[in-house]
Each structure stands twice: as C-alpha cells, then as structure tokens.
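Long-time lurker. I teach an intro course on protein structure, and each term I like to show students one example going from raw sequence to a predicted 3D structure in token notation. This year I'd like something fresh instead of my usual example. Would anyone be willing to generate the tokens for the chain below so I can use it in lecture? Attribution to the forum is fine with me.
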Amino acid sequence: MKTETPGKDNRPPRAGGLRRHEVLLPPAHTFYVMAESPCPYLPGQLERKLFTELRPEDADDFYASLSRGGFRRSHNFAYRPACTGCTACVPVRIDAEAFRPSRSLRRIARANRDLVARERHARATTEQFRVFARYITTRHADGEMASMSFGDYRSMIEESVLDTRLIEFRDSEGDLVAGLLTDWSSDGASAVYSFFDPSLSARSLGTYMVLWLVEECRRRDLPYVYLGYWIEGSRKMSYKARFQPLETLGPSGWQKLTPADAPA
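-- Reply from a regular --
Happy to contribute to a lecture. Here you go:
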C-alpha cells in the first residue's frame, strides 16, 4: 500500500508562493492555497493544494470533519487537491463494516498470518528507518523522499497533534518487515504512510496492512478507513479499487465506487 502525501513527499507545505484563501467554515481556521507545481501522478499536469494548520486544542474533531471533506494530513497540516481544471484525484475510503474481502485478498491475509502487529506511539527508530530507506530506494528512487535523512523521517513520524500511531509488523523471528503510520479519530482510521521490506514483495505487505486496518476498525467499532486519493487509470493507485465497497467523494457526497475492472 502506498498512501499519498503532498507531491510524493510527506514534508509540510512550504510558505513560498502562498496566497490567503478565505472560507466560511470553520471561522476559527484560515485556509491557504499553494502555488502550482508539477503533478507527481499525471504527466504534463500542474497540482495545487488547499491546506490549513492543525492545532492541538481542536485537532481531533476538526480533522475528523476535514477527513469527511476529503482532506489528508502531512505533519501538522491538513490538505486536499485544489487543482485548476482537474478533478482526477478522488478521495476514497473503505466502509469497514460492509467490507467483504475477495478470494485474492483472503489469500494475502492467510499468507501473513505469522506476522505480529504492534501499535506504538509515533516515535521513529533507526530500525524503522532502515526498512523505510530500503523501501524508498527500491520503489521510489526517483521521488523527493529518496533524499530523506533520519531527521526527515523522524519529523514525518513524530510531528502530529492527532492520535497518531506507528503499527509495526514483525515476523516469527521478531524482525521488522513493515510499518504503517496511522491517524485515529472518531470517524475511523486514516492511513498516512506505509512501507515494507521490498525483498518480501511476494507477501503483498502493502495490501495486507490495509486489511489489518479494516479489521482493527471493525474491532474498535469505527466506520471508515481513509486511503487518500484514487486516480482512475493510475497503476500506482489501482490497488485501492480492490477494497470493496470503496466509497468516493464527489459533488453529491460519498458514494460507492464499483469500477468494472476492479480485481477479483
């Protein structure tokens, strides 16, 4: 699983090129629009994001509302696409209670039954960073995250005013094989970022971590797993369509998506 952050990078938005954008709700928060930059997903397109700062005094309720409006989190900022003339990035979430895994998803769950998940406070470790660095070098060597230092990684993990946890997945020998950065709220779980040992690609660990998150939401009686954005036809995001029923946010609110080419 890969969850999206601003421009393939999970660092906070820079202030350069911003202009103030007034909104009516909620009145206590100011929203800003970033300057346009090349889109990391659609060649030749420009991306632009609307964002606001999350503050400790009201972060939980505020971000739960923002999640329902299609926002994501990066560090202490919430953002969503606000691109000119393009609505390709569609917010998606899994209805945890209604979710029924397909045959292939059940196979992935069985193949990873030996893993032990441990939920930790969001604290970075060198062990995590070694797995993260191997993942980035193998899967995203051409992206901005490839240059991240341990300090950058620690900032990504630890800078949050929400109930943010790092779920570690370990094999039978106690070795760390994957990590999932997750925000918890009254509305469910938001998968912020995940990484895994690229030498274990046969395990489909990215998919397995989403399955684990769905089951954990059901155990906690929470309604949704937010997966970020889905772009129809994007190979990098096609895995999200496997988690049915998947809901998408559009002009008429959240509605079920059942793409004809969704994998069985």
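Some talking points for your students: Residues 38 and 184 are 31 Å apart (CA to CA). The first strand starts at residue 19 and ends at 21.
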